[in-house]
Amino acid sequence: MAMRLLLNPGHAPAQRIADRVDLPGELQSLRLEPGDLVLPSPVNAHDHGYGIRTLDFGAVDDALEVWIPSLRLRPRTDPYLEALVAFGRLARTGVGATMHCHNSLNVDRLVDEGGAVMRAAGDIGIRLALSCPLLDYDAWAYDGGPQRLQPFLSPADWDALAGTIPAYAPIRAQLSAVEAVAAANTNPLIDVQYGPIGPQWCSNALLEAIAEASVLHGRRIHMHLLESPRQRLWLDQRFPEGVVTYLDKIGFLSPRLAVAHGVQLRPDELELLVARGVQLVSNPTANLRLRSGVAPIASTLENGGLAFAIGLDGTGLDDDQDLWREMRLLYLLQGGRSLTRRLTARHIFDAATRVGGQVVNAADAADYTVIDYRALTAEALFDDVDEAEVLLTRMSAKYAKGLFVAGREVMHRGELTGIDFDAALAELLAQARADQPRLEKQRPLVGALSAATRAYYATWSGLS
Ligand SMILES: [Zn+2]
User: Fold this and answer.
1) Cα-to-centroid distance, 4 and ligand 1 (Å)
2) Which domain holds residue 444?
3) Ligand 1 being an ion, which residues bring their Cβ within 5 A of it?
């Protein structure tokens, strides 16, 4: 059985290779067997690096704002080990690059934690974009911050929570911390980016400073935008001219910007993003699990199309960080109802590779995933069915058998070459379990904060 090279999935069928000596030079080092298929590695273009996944620390899916307090139950573990397990899990599925939106809110720890995350990516061998968190506005509740929740909490719970209201570092200090993280980076496979968490959590002064710094340093920006219906409602009040128009006015929109989610974007806003060369990272499962909806991606196909990428956001369909399934879900959700598909396999693979590469600032990456295509098609009657369609219908992590990033073999037959994944996971779980007594005490308070958040937004008209 021939090997297949699918260098341009969705554009052209795979090339059959009878003998490995016929492989192009850069692929000569790949360990291949008959029946294998090689394609450019997909990029996970939005995530948060959960070594311990959210459900495992008790964060059950809910509406986004109600769910966010449950992230307080994330166990305190070593940031290196946490990232090592998260990146290792992805590499085992054949994903060669990831966007890591770091969650730490402590500017003093950012340089150390960023260093640990970058070391983990280097030890696994994957490509990394590290988005450094920037925020200074309306913590806990839009339109007023923590005090908005006080009427919905018992005095005792409010007193217990008041001590955890964040005190944000000055804008200059936050931006300097990003530059310090970037200065400490020596790995050419890593790109450090500005990570404003979302416009609802950033003051205008912060957004304007980031736009300016991005031009000055040529540094990319990665930001959540218009994920939930409540964000839409609040940002419409805060920016009467429209939040996207405002961002354009301050020079925030450019090809150096990727926005995550964008579920609530309106047609005129999508057009503006297309015109400015902004990329949108879609996280279809996260949008369903946190009840934000379905992003309006297929609707943009007519006017040149929005450049979109795909991300797991730590909340994949089977909660197993399988980007292949995420690609399938996006393909199905955006398929429409007409006789002929408008959003095709080509769009999905372009999103996962070309646009994903742009989001992690590695547009010229030459990374490859080897797939056990023989196993994937073991019961097929014909062997000339379009490979891109086969992958979008049936591919999942278990068929990924090799990963090569920048010429280095990162994974072979599910085993990582850089680290012992099972040992790292066992150690991380031991650290998490050691933190369990503290988390156990936190759980009732987190439950009260989530309930107060739900009660607060229920008072917003039309959003029960
Ligand atoms: Zn996210």
Assistant:
1) 35
2) 4-457
3) 313
